[in-house]
Every structure is written in structure tokens, then in C-alpha cells.
Design a protein that fits this description.
The protein folds into 2 domains: 248 residues, no CATH class; 143 residues, 2-Layer Sandwich (Heat Shock Protein 90), CATH 3.30.565.10. Helix content is 62%, strand content 11%. It contains 10 helices and 8 strands. The protein has a 6-stranded mixed sheet, covered by helices on one side. A two-stranded antiparallel ribbon has the order 1-3. β4 and β5 form a beta hairpin. α8 runs parallel beside α9. Pfam families: HisKA_3. It catalyses: ATP + protein L-histidine = ADP + protein N-phospho-L-histidine. GO terms for molecular function: ATP binding; phosphorelay sensor kinase activity; protein dimerization activity.
Length: 397
């Protein structure tokens, strides 16, 4: 089984972030309470800004896909506070540690997760915002300049940490890809040395039997066996070639997709096949064609085994999701009300799921409607459909 990248534990880091941010806010609040008199407007503004920025910093873990929006919002909020402080210069002591730490965390997350261009822009904006905030808010004294230098160093540390985490993710992905390549090559060697060797032996013995029984009634049957063995050997060799050189499995226009589907259905007149117009022009990798064949064949076998009373069985194959994936649906109406279908001891769905998962696709199987059962597979098609293909559905039989 190919290894999967396990996400590193983050519970401890989340707790540490909550403790640090909450501690800074509590420290600022306690420091204000022990000072007599009402709090200046500036202190209230900067305390609220730090609190909101801390929430944004924590939300980046809950919504990693919105890191760019959260970081941009944090920078904008800090700039608004700096502009307000510059215009009104409210009487307030130098503060804002919570805001600086939260903004540094957001900038580091942007450097870690976002594309290079977006990360660079947000990192520069974040650095200018953090370094300029003390001077804009509290004036150009020696104290504010020292605070500005400290915040700039904090920004630099966040960028460095973000880039280190980014490099670690890249190295982990490269190691995972290398492991997959090694297992792919090992599987290719096993197929070549064992399976192909035995199939070759079967073909050779069949050819010898054909020579010996050239005039016998079994000659035609032997020729069929020989042809089937030769086709199986060719399929194994193509699979070995693709496993050894994944680039050879790049997308090509396969005219046999429709034929493959119809071969899987066979002569079963009870099955209605609905194929999209122009499906023969679909750019499909060879392994995707074989997976479609397996899904249709296994699904129909399950219908015959578990739903013999089905009155309607349909096979639908069409491009979907803006022509970025191939949708294969096999459904029937043989599920009796109140009964849950099970396949004890069967590995058909498991095998289909593993094949589809290897192609980064998805498989859904279960009840559909009142009496329906549906197997739905979606296989990615990065190359899409050629310009002459139309996504409209047509009937093949």
C-alpha cells in the first residue's frame, strides 16, 4: 500500500498560540486596570485591534484555504488603526504586542501556504505595516523606534519560519513521490518477472498444441486461447511500461473508450447505455479506460447477483464538472423498500475504490431514490474534451 502523508500534530501548537495571544491580551488589560483614571481612546482602539487580530490568527487553522483573506484582513485592520493613530494621535502609551504577534503569525502562515507571488506581496505589506505602526501611532521617539525595530525582527522571524515550513512540505511531498516511484518500479518488476513470464509460457504451449492438433476439431478453440493469451500479454507489457515510465501514461485520444464500455455491458438487452455525444473524442489515459471497464463490469455483475428483479438498469457515461472529469454512473431499481443491500464477503467495491483512488477519483455507492441503487465514479480528466466533442447525452442502444 502506498504511504500517505500524515499531517503533523497541531493540537499543541494551537494551545500554545491561544496561551500566548490570550496572555498578551490579559497582560495589557491588567496593566490598564492598575492605572488610575479612564483609559485613553487610543489604548481601547489598539486593544480591540489586537483582540480581533488574535481571532484572525487562530481562524487560519480552521480555514486554511482562506489564509490569504485572513492575512489581508489583518493587515488592513492594522493599517486602519495606524491611520487613526496618525491622524488623531490619541494619548496612549506604547502598546500593541498582541497585534504584532498575531500579524506575524498571519504573515508566516501566508509564506507557508500561499503561492509565491501572493506570499511575497503579503509578506512585504505585512513587514511595512508592522515596522511603521509604532512610529505612525506614537511618534518618532527613541522608544517607538526601538519598538519598530523589535516588530520588524518579529516579522523577519515569522517569514523565516513560514519559509522553513514551506520547504519542509516540499521535501515531504518529494519524499512521498519518490516512495511511490520505488513501489511502482517494484510492482512493474513483479508483473514482468512473474505474470508476463507465466502468460508467455501459456501462449507458447498453446501455440505448440495448435501445431499438434492442426487438423483436429479443437484447432479453432486453441486459436482463440492463443489470441486471448497474446492480448493479455500485450496488456501486461503496456501496464509494465506505464508503471516504469509514468510520463508514457499521459493523456492520449483513445478511440476505444466507447467500445470498452459496450464490451463491459455485453449483449445484455436489459441494460440501457447512455453515452455523451462525442465520447470517442475524449482525451483519456489508458488506465482510466481500464478503470471505466472495471467499474461498469463489476457494477453490472453486482446487479445480476444482488438485484435480479431489477426492471431498469442504466449505464451513463459523460464528461462533467466543466469537462474536467469523466462521470460513470450505473444504477438500477432493484432495491426493495426497507431492505439494505449488502455484499458479504465481496471485494468488488473495495477493488473499484482502490483503483479509482489511485487515479485521484471518487466513488459513491448506495441507495438512490425509493428503490434505486447507484454506483457513481468520477475520474479526473485534466486535458478535458476536444473542441469537437459536445457534452450532451445520447443513447447508444
Amino acid at each position: 500500500m502506498l504511504p500517505t502523508a500524515a499531517p503533523p500534530p497541531v493540537r499543541g501548537l494551537v494551545i500554545a498560540e491561544v496561551v500566548v495571544l490570550a496572555g498578551l491580551n490579559i497582560e495589557q488589560l491588567v496593566r490598564r486596570l492598575i492605572v488610575p483614571g479612564p483609559a485613553p481612546a487610543g489604548e481601547v482602539l489598539y486593544f480591540a485591534s489586537g483582540l480581533l487580530l488574535g481571532v484572525l490568527a487562530l481562524l487560519r487553522r480552521r480555514f486554511p484555504a482562506r489564509t490569504a483573506a485572513l492575512t489581508t484582513s489583518g493587515i488592513a485592520l492594522s493599517l486602519v488603526c495606524s491611520a487613526a493613530g496618525f491622524l488623531s494621535r490619541p494619548a496612549a502609551e506604547v502598546s500593541g504586542d498582541t497585534e504584532a504577534v498575531a500579524l506575524a503569525v498571519l504573515v508566516g502562515a501566508a509564506c507557508h501556504r500561499l503561492p509565491r507571488g501572493h506570499a511575497a506581496v503579503l509578506a512585504v505589506l505585512g513587514g511595512l505595516t508592522m515596522a511603521g505602526a509604532p512610529v505612525l501611532r506614537f511618534g518618532g521617539t527613541s522608544t517607538t523606534l526601538t519598538v519598530a525595530v523589535v516588530w520588524a525582527l518579529l516579522w523577519g522571524c515569522s517569514v523565516i519560519v513560514g519559509l522553513i515550513l514551506r520547504d519542509g512540505d516540499a521535501r515531504r511531498e518529494a519524499a512521498l513521490a519518490a516512495t511511490r516511484d520505488r513501489e511502482r518500479l517494484a510492482l512493474a518488476r513483479e508483473l514482468h518477472d512473474l505474470v508476463a513470464h507465466h502468460i508467455t509460457g501459456v501462449v507458447v504451449r498453446t501455440q505448440a498444441a495448435g501445431v499438434v492438433l492442426a487438423d483436429g476439431p479443437e484447432h479453432d478453440l486453441i486459436k482463440e486461447i492463443e489470441q486471448a493469451g497474446a492480448e493479455a500479454l500485450g496488456a501486461v507489457r503496456r501496464l509494465v511500461m506505464m508503471l516504469r515510465s509514468p510520463e508514457l501514461a499521459s493523456q492520449v485520444t483513445v478511440g476505444g473508450l466507447v467500445e470498452t464500455i459496450e464490451a463491459a455491458v455485453g449483449d445484455d438487452e436489459g441494460v440501457t447505455v447512455l453515452l455523451a455525444d462525442g465520447l470517442e473524442d475524449l482525451a483519456v489515459a489508458p488506465e482510466t479506460v481500464s478503470t471505466v471497464h472495471r467499474v461498469v463490469l463489476e457494477s453490472l455483475n453486482n446487479v445480476r447477483r444482488h438485484a435480479p428483479d431489477a426492471r431498469r438498469v442504466t449505464v451513463v457515461v459523460e464528461p462533467a464538472d466543466d469537462r474536467r472529469c469523466l462521470r460513470v454512473e450505473v444504477g438500477n431499481d432493484g432495491l426493495r423498500p426497507g431492505r439494505v443491500r449488502r455484499s458479504p464477503g465481496g471485494y468488488g467495491l473495495i477493488g473499484m475504490a482502490e483503483r479509482i483512488s489511485a487515479l485521484d477519483g471518487t466513488l459513491t455507492a448506495g441507495g438512490h431514490g425509493e428503490r434505486g441503487w447507484r454506483v457513481l465514479a468520477e475520474l479526473p480528466l485534466p486535458g478535458g474534451v476536444s473542441a469537437t466533442a459536445a457534452p450532451e447525452r445520447g443513447s447508444a442502444r
